[in-house]
Amino acid sequence: MSVWENLEPRAVFHFFEEICAIPHGSGNTAQISKYLQSFAAERGIWYRTDELGNVVMRKPASFGYEEVPGLIIQGHMDMVAVKEADCEKDMQTEGLDPAIDGDYVCAVGTSLGGDDGIAVAYGLALMDDDSIPHPQLELIITVDEETGMFGANALDMSDITGRRFLNLDSEDEGCFLTGCAGGRRLKGQVDRSLITVRGRQVTITVAGLQGGHSGGEIHKERGNAILLLGRVLAVVLNETALSLISMSGGTAENVIPSSAQAVLVCAEPEKVQPAVDKVLADLKKEYELRDPQVRVEVLAADSDGVYQADSQEATAHFITLLTALPTGVQAMSPSIPGMVETSLNLGILSSDEESITLQYSIRSSVESTKYALSDRVAAIFALAGAHVEAGSDYPGWAYRVDSPLRDKMVRVYERMYGKKPQITTIHAGLECGLFLGKCPDLDCVSMGPDMLDIHSTNEKLSISSVKRVWEYLLELLKDKA
């Protein structure tokens, strides 16, 4: 029996099942874009696409709703595709393996992509059902949100007629988001000049960390595996000389890295494990409540060999850079208690024969602070002799005092549940800011069902919450205000 067979609402989970069967990690969205285009074409729904694969659909208002302001439904088709270290799935070519865990849908060995596959599923279910009363609907589904909002940035909005904009890229039911931080990506590359080195190969791995979304969970101060690896290497370097063969860690700039690894040539390999044990004992104490499963593993070759690696001086220089780099919360909001204002996340560490690359996601609800922090990191990179490159840069989304859509959503929510929803802003980035840059008169709100640990292999989507949010969407569309 399919894990989806008895899930309600059936229409929404039907489309979510089809989405899960299609590989759709960021940068790998051609197949799911074609699926969305085929969906519209088969049903005679007006649609268009562009060279990136963004898809826009339009459905006329149902009878009696022609004068009701139209609604734009928006989400993104890409997911953060991560997997457990021992998972053999090829996420470039294979779909997910869904499972049920109580009230939650998850995926075996991988992330689930509820962020933002559930938004796409909601949109398709609305477009597919002609019995649902609704104003004009425009469904916008973008590509590559997770890697820099490239789809939203490129999308032509000239033919979009609606001005009420409902983004379905949030993870807390009953929480309506009305603003978000802006963000920027930054990359530093350190050139390498490999030499021939003889010695014992040692692999040091930091693992067992929870990771998570660098916007929604940065305030939890979980361990960043890349920077913890730098800390471990600095301790080992105090005991023995090292030459770096390779380094890797993290999956995306906006994901707190849960593991990182360095492969080195060690002059005195017998000194590595005692040094690692010492720093691991400190990490266990420091992260007892935040990341209790943190571990550091050492694997040494049985005999000496000859390798291409950085010199000892270059290796020490790079380890010093790693220990100097910042991550995590940099400032809290002075006006919203408990809200992060500014943060950054070192999300990716990679190396090849030419260079070592470090990639950051920087966020702030204050544009000037975002750029100041970016300049600070760039300065650290420059002092280390690294080449610096700025990546995607997207604006924040400011709270709108006059919002007919927000007022309507609050009224419908109170009528259904007898209580007020939470109205707040979020530190994570949303595409609303980019769309507002194209259409300043958009009236935007973001919402969604409950999800846990997005962007990680622990990601879960609440089944009951999906149902409640669907029922709420139907009532929202039915209301003629």
- Principal-axis shape equals elongated
Which value, in Å, is the CA radius of gyration? 24 Å
How many beta-strand elements? 23
Number of helices: 11
| Span between termini | 43 Å
Helix content: 25-40%
The chain-level mean pLDDT equals 95
Percentage beta strand: 25-35%
Spatial ordering of strands, largest sheet? 1-2-6-3-7-21
Low-confidence stretches: none
What class would the helix/strand composition place it in?
Answer: alpha+beta
Largest β-sheet summary: 6 strands, mixed
Verbal overview:
- The protein is α+β, with helices and mostly antiparallel strands and 481 residues long.
- Helices cover 29% and strands 30% of the residues.
- The strands form six sheets. Strands 1-2-6-3-7-21 form a six-stranded mixed β-sheet. A five-stranded antiparallel β-sheet has the order 16-17-18-9-19, with helices on one face. Strands 4-5-23-22 form a four-stranded antiparallel β-sheet.
- α1 crosses α3 (114-128).
